[in-house]
Amino acid sequence: PTLTLVEHNGTEHQVTGEIGQSVMQAAMFASVPGIQGDCGGACSCATCHAYVDDQWQAQVAEAEGAEADMLEYASERRASSRLTCQLVISEALEGLVLHLPESQY
Ligand code: FES
């Protein structure tokens, strides 16, 4: 599936990931600036933070559990905030649009 990650400055990146891979892994592999993934996907750094596009909020679940707790440390958290290491790529996410925060810190 191919996803679109939009940087804070509006630059769009098309990222193709494997099913079962996290969005963070796919974004890091594609060297998308703005996704840091400092903890390697262990849900313990909040530097893989992104916002789910308005059009996609019905299809993508809100953060819960450990992810929601970790988002407390993310900069400018919103209702649409997710940690992309906890967002697993599936067929259903084909075309997903995510927006990156201005900064991960
Ligand atoms: Fe650290 Fe997602 S990569 S919380």
TrEMBL record:
Coiled coil: none annotated. Residues 1-104 form the 2Fe-2S ferredoxin-type domain. Gene3D superfamilies: 3.10.20.30. It comes from the Bacteria. One of its GO terms (cellular component) is cytosol. Its cofactor is [2Fe-2S] cluster. Transmembrane segments: none annotated. Keywords: 2Fe-2S, Iron, Iron-sulfur, Metal-binding. PROSITE patterns: 2FE2S_FER_2, ADX. Belongs to the adrenodoxin/putidaredoxin family. PANTHER family: FERREDOXIN-2, MITOCHONDRIAL, FERREDOXIN/ADRENODOXIN. This is (2Fe-2S)-binding protein. It comes from Marinobacterium aestuarii. The lineage of its organism: Bacteria, Pseudomonadati, Pseudomonadota, Gammaproteobacteria, Oceanospirillales.
